[in-house]
């Protein structure tokens, strides 16, 4: 089957593997329309808040140090633990999404985040604050997978990449918008009042999910039950299917470089490594991140209409990433010229923004919409787990006194290896199906 055929097929699919099960019939895709956009819009509102809560702590760092009498190293446990909870729960929340559906999952996620923010607001100690951030991480872990599941269940297959890309843009806006409103609220309402206010907003969003969101345009599956697949069978099905495997290696290759810079090492790299002034470094990171947001919906729309372009697009991105980061770490005599550094940053940012549109669109291939939760969880976990590993590895290398070229070697290695695996899988000719009889 060609890539285009795999993308648009709506009749019969069967999982790949040596012991493939009998073919199953996949119903025609939903029509989309205004109600689909409304349902997705409520879901993406929860994701916007999840990104707001995930990244807003930076605006409260100084107040948190004073409130909990904690130094920077101890305080850094809060975002790192929250991210770790997010990564660990990706597959379990994917299983949950396939079992109970997006409406219940998103409601539970919003309630968990509201409870976590409220607990963080009244926390008398760092231990209680950590418990609040864990609850926020649990709610956050549920959110993205279920928003793109709404896209799978409410929109035609040809729109899935576009809606996934728009979901990523909404998350990016939530991340960028977290600092100013929280800073304003902290100065106007104080610590407890500010966080309780955002907890209330999140709780209101959970009520909107209950009132507006439905799992599918036609209601529950016939008979009122969902197909039950054992957890290990769901994971095995996703892992042996080509589409989810492509999504996993694509996310591992494309997402981590700029995410690593955005989470921790971008500002120190530009200031201490490349010699930029602090104000210029901060403006560059924010400006580049905002300037490439348009890439995701563009690629999503293109991939939805012409799925055959996914292969050359993914190949080009993986090749540019490998060459660019090899230039950064291997340039003789120190970092490459400023123009090369900036070009690598721009390409990395554009790739990170485009990652959801392509990675999760690949993961849809070969699976029915009702069982995409686990596949999406595996894809998300591959990108975030790789990010955590290379971010920590960079810190360990820098601790030894080595420079940023050495610190980014682990990131370059994982990017090149995952990119090589992606290109091999994309261009390897699939085995011919054996004719019956």
UniProtKB/TrEMBL annotation:
Record SUPFAM superfamilies: MFS general substrate transporter
KW Kinase (keyword) present: no
Cross-referenced InterPro entries: MFS, MFS_dom, MFS_Efflux_Transporters, MFS_trans_sf
Transmembrane segments annotated in the record for this chain: 34-53, 73-97, 104-123, 129-148, 160-184, 190-213, 249-270, 276-301, 313-334, 340-362, 374-398, 404-427
Cellular compartments annotated: Cell membrane
Region Disordered: start-end pairs: 1-25
Keyword Transmembrane helix part of the UniProt annotation: yes
Keywords for the protein's UniProt record, in alphabetical order: Cell membrane, Membrane, Transmembrane, Transmembrane helix
Membrane topology: Multi-pass membrane protein
PROSITE patterns documented for this protein: MFS (PS50850)
Domain (Major facilitator superfamily (MFS) profile): residue spans on this chain: 39-432
PANTHER family cross-referenced by the UniProt entry: CHLORAMPHENICOL EFFLUX PUMP RV0191 (PTHR43124:SF3), PURINE EFFLUX PUMP PBUE (PTHR43124)
Record's protein name: MFS transporter
